[in-house]
Amino acid sequence: MIEIKNITRKYKMGKETVIALDNVSLKIEDGEFLAIVGPSGSGKTTLMHIVGGLDTPTGGEVLFDGKDISKYKDKEMSKFRNSHIGFVFQAFNLENTQTALENVMMPLIFAGMGKKERREKALKALEQVELGHLANHRPSEMSGGQRQRVSIARALVNNPKIIFADEPTGNLDSKTGNNIMELFYKLNDKGYTIIMVTHNMEEAEKAKRVIKIKDGNLISDERNEGLANEA
């Protein structure tokens, strides 16, 4: 589904050039559960942002079903992300003044749906993460784990092909984090492709595939089918 060819990403910091990614190539198939790990500043989040269309590479190609999305203009990229990709972030990124249902409905506004259809799809997504009973609660009335489930429901609402999760358990205690990971496993079993950035090796090693990044380079790529099946 995704092929990354010779991706580089350079940033200017004053007079210095920082190489965040250095000639990285990678293939990601439908239905994979991929963990990207590496120390702070290794380039793992940059890689996720480029694959997810949130950043543009300095060089190379990002092929999605054979089309190079790295060449898309802003409007075309926004449309692509909204219809193909769901994002889950460490800080949840929810609107505190809106209910869980309203937060999950938000991506559907850009899809041009009527309000009734938006509500129905958003409620279905909340039920998918076992949170339908809190549809009318605001984030401030929820636990961290519940807020992350709302974030996951929002990522699911457009029925994306891929879910990107950036340190999804980083703000959660270990028990709650394990529950969120179990939810990702279930979603992967249903056919969703999961790409997760994490510093937690215990979580990463339960993914079906673990990629390690260091100093902008891909240093290892291992498959853990047995561990994934036990999770």
Automatic annotation (TrEMBL):
Annotated PROSITE patterns: ABC_TRANSPORTER_1 (PS00211), ABC_TRANSPORTER_2 (PS50893)
InterPro entries named in the record: AAA+_ATPase, ABC_transporter-like_ATP-bd, ABC_transporter-like_CS, ABC_transpr_LolD-like, MacB-like_ATP-bd, P-loop_NTPase
GO MF annotation terms: ATP binding; ATP hydrolysis activity; transmembrane transporter activity
A Pfam short name: ABC_tran
Annotated ranges, domain ABC transporter: 2-231
Keyword terms: ATP-binding, Nucleotide-binding, Transport
GO CC terms of this entry: membrane protein complex; plasma membrane
PANTHER family (UniProt xref): ABC TRANSPORTER DOMAIN-CONTAINING PROTEIN, IMPORT ATP-BINDING PROTEIN
Protein name from the UniProt record: ABC transporter ATPase
Organism: Clostridium thermobutyricum
